[in-house]
Amino acid sequence: MGAQANTAADVIIVGGGLVGATLAIALVESGLRIRVVDPVTAAAPTQPSYDDRSTALSPTSQRILEALGLWPAIAAEAAPIRTIHVSDQRSFGITRMHAEREGLKALGHVVPNRVLGRVLRERIAALPATVQPVTARVERVESGAEVAQVVLDDGASLTARLLVAADGTRSALRKHLGIDVRDTAYHQCAVVANVTPAQAPNGRAFERFTPEGPLALLPLPGGHCSLVWTVSPERGQRLAGLDDGDFLAALQAAFGYRLGRFLQVGQRFVYPLSLSRSGQRVAERSVLIGNAARTLHPVAGQGFNLALRDVAELAERVHGAALRGEDPGATALLQAYAAARQGDHRRVTLMTDGLVRLFSNRLPGLRFARNVGMVAMELLPAGRARFMRQAMGRGNRLPRLARGLPLEGGHG
Ligand SMILES: Cc1cc2nc3c(=O)[nH]c(=O)nc-3n(C[C@H](O)[C@H](O)[C@H](O)COP(=O)(O)OP(=O)(O)OC[C@H]3O[C@@H](n4cnc5c(N)ncnc54)[C@H](O)[C@@H]3O)c2cc1C
Fold first, then answer.
1. Ligand 1 pocket mutation pick from 41, 53, 186, 287 by most atoms within 8 angstroms of CB
2. What is the pTM of this model?
3. Pocket of ligand 1 (CB under 6 A)
4. What is the CATH topology of the domain spanning 7-77+112-182+275-362+395-402?
5. Which of these, 105, 103, 125, lies nearest to 36 by C-alpha position?
């Protein structure tokens, strides 16, 4: 739907990628008037959230998606992860994490982003008229004490009591709101492709730390794997330019034969990697979520999982305010939201950044430390359990959606 001049809404979500779209769905029962603004419709082949990547979803993310009624359609095209095998190419340390040992059916599920995109798009299309997609780019923001206003590239403007910036790593909204961002470049990129090994992965995920960076192979339905191979930007360009045979040979050399020979590879995509943290996650009448708030290295597959927990917390607070007839963009609400999410953000960032640094450092002492660390993780249940809880998104106080429960007393 196109933008209309000077439209008033309750919530404007800028960015209809994975995170913005999920938040819109989570808020539908609140009865609030919601606009989701994105210049790229979800159906477009260039929609960045829904490209050829796959996403590993934690059990908490599964519960959130279940509570939103999205899980059955996703699960039909997802592969469960039953074990995670972590190894270092140059040394003896190997650790395995087992779903069974954790009392779970699966440690997580891997879903192609295109499937996530399709399921979200279909749901958004079926939502009542209170939620409206607006195909436009936000050009300017004026956030004030009473309302936030965004000006679109077609000259129209929208006002709302709450503005949600879900416009990705290079968030223009963040800039317009005067929020600074701290970028840590890893001087690495991720080469992403779907590959077919001779042996089906059958629920096995692999994280292999190589001198160049971590290489992850995640199980996909149909005996395929999703490859995320972290290397230097120069090597990434070279790998992406290889023909299929040479690419598979390079991958085989880095990964070994745990899944037999690699037989086939799809199109390669290269993503630059950095840690990017916004100085604040809330401002007057505004909140940043998803990559706009924090972009993580994909080594531990945490970006969308963390963002889904943000969605669960924010939706519960905004929904509650709507039911009580309160202001969904009130400063106290936004600050309470940011405070509630602070610890999870800090822990996940430290874990992800720590993993990248520990495993990409070539110092001999550190190499010893990481071998010992991995072996210790295998032997010491407490250390492994802490890592697992983090990786699976189990926190302290969980919002209702994260417990698999719908939000209370919606408008239906
Ligand atoms: C290689 C790789 C592997 C990953 N694997 C995992 C994983 O296994 N598990 C996991 O949890 N996470 C993973 N992630 C992270 C995950 O992909 C991100 O957390 C997620 O894509 C963030 O989505 P988003 O909606 O915040 O941002 P985006 O996907 O970037 O979407 C932003 C949206 O905003 C729109 N937009 C931009 N500017 C404007 C504007 N001015 N006006 C209106 N709209 C605008 C864009 O069109 C876009 O649709 C991975 C990331 C990478 C790079």
1. 53
2. 0.89
3. 14-20, 37-40, 47-49, 53, 55-56, 137-138, 166-168, 172, 190, 192, 228, 271, 290-291, 298, 301-305, 307
4. FAD/NAD(P)-binding domain (3.50.50)
5. 125
